[in-house]
Amino acid sequence: MAWRGNNDRLQEMGIDLPSYFTRCLNVSEQHWNLSSLLIPDYFSGTTCAPPEPEFFDVNKWHTALASYMGSGNTWVRHIIEYISGVVTGSIYVDRDLLNEFKGEGQTENVMVIKTHELASRHRRTYNRAVILLRHPADTIMTLYNYERSRSHTGHVDKWMFEADDWKLFVQSNIFSWQRFYQSWTEDFSGPKFYLSYTRLQTEFYTELLRLAQFLDIPVTFQKLWCLKREMESGYHRNKAPWIDRGSFNKDMMKALNQSASLVKKAFTDVFDTSVEDLI
User: Fold this and answer.
1) Could you tell me if 74 and 97 are in contact, meaning their C-beta atoms sit under 8 angstroms apart?
2) Which uninterrupted H or E stretch holds 196?
3) pLDDT number for residue 231
4) What pLDDT digit, counting tens, does each position of 27-44 carry?
């Protein structure tokens, strides 16, 4: 029996299903809960073909995927390409990513365009924006690891988080992180969607459906199940065990949390909702 009508239960979860979802969902009503839909037995025999995203025939939007470096942009691009079947682009050409994303360096006919630039520099470049936000402590740790290892998959040695270079790096990035998100909340006037890295980790499917709704991507539960399987097999890269918030001293964490509080206020004012638990 196909899903018909009543979406009250999903709305209680914060998911307001647009009309196209009712055409895509082919599940019985007792399986309204997302978690129950994603058990292996429900889709036994399902073949999950590797995604082969293509470019749009024509531009629909110029959508920014805006984030501070180290926020999980690469992971989110994989997710968007998997659920949409459309290439994601970038204003940069990262040679390490050319094999993963055929839209690397492209800004036309793509689903979203990766950018780490301030919104004030590209007010007329984008029609709308997905703003990916992650706590500054985790963002700066990831960025430091990437810049010092010069690798999307490698790790720096543990001792480097005890060096003066680490302390200077944190100090130089705290204000830049804050300025970046204040710019995208205050200087960009087009439609905006706030994407929480934290919620992608803790409430993945709810956050994913919200993102799909904003981007107008039809999603089937079969596709969600396949994505879940991909993630469990290493789709999302792990980090070294010593890369954690213990790398920050008390003064660092105080400054990071103050910066995060200011950005939380900016997001709360713009999106008219509390983001206290989402960063």
Assistant:
1) yes
2) strand 192-196
3) 66
4) 334 334 455 555 555 566
Tokens of 207: 């956050």
Sequence-distant contacts of 203-208: CB under 8 A, at least 24 apart: 204/231, 205/34, 205/35, 205/38, 206/13, 206/14, 206/15, 206/34, 208/79, 208/83
Integer Rg of the chain from CA: 19
CB 131 within 8 A of CB 168: no
Selection from 62, 81, 83, 84 nearest residue 73 by Cα: 81
| Residue 244, phi then psi, degrees to nearest 5 | -145, 180
Tokens found for residue 119: 């919104």
Residues 157-197: tens digit of each pLDDT: 676 777 789 899 999 999 999 999 999 999 999 999 999 99
Q: What percent of the chain has pLDDT over 90?
A: 38
Identify whether the C-beta of residue 198 lies closer than 8 Å to the C-beta of residue 260: no
Cα–Cα distance, 155 to 209 (Å, whole number): 32
pLDDT at 14 over 90: no
